[in-house]
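Minutes, project check-in
Item: structure for the 148-residue chain
Input as provided by the requester:
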Amino acid sequence: MQKDRILKSLRVNYAVSFIAALLVVVAFECGYLYKGALLTVLSNTAVYIVQVVTVMLTVILIPLAIKGFSNNLKKAKGASEREFLKIYSKNTLRRVFLLFIAIIVSEFAYYGLNYEGALYCAILAYGSLIYSYPTKLVLEDYLQGLNN
């Protein structure tokens, strides 16, 4: 029963982050936020730095979110089921948050700077977020590995 409650909570957090990221796109596309607004405020050097930071952040956060998740769960091999569920929920939230940060930064770089490379970063981060959906099958698989 506790597993179902934890999964429901994780799915709600996942959905909120996914919808929030989509709302940023809708806000820019509908004209609520001005496209290219950061170009008027930042110098050429600052624009370049933001572009590099956007790409580097995406390149660092996606593997950290995905690989770090499984590595942390492998370390919890000797934990009880209750402790493991705490570790699983904490790591799932961390993974979704890291991917959400990568998406938001990429979206603001794409729309705020008209930087095409950030679009690809955002697409990669969205794909990773879709891959990170918390399912009962994955949780049960980790729990079986815990018992073995």
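Outcome recorded: The two ends are 22 Å apart (CA to CA).
No further action items on this chain.
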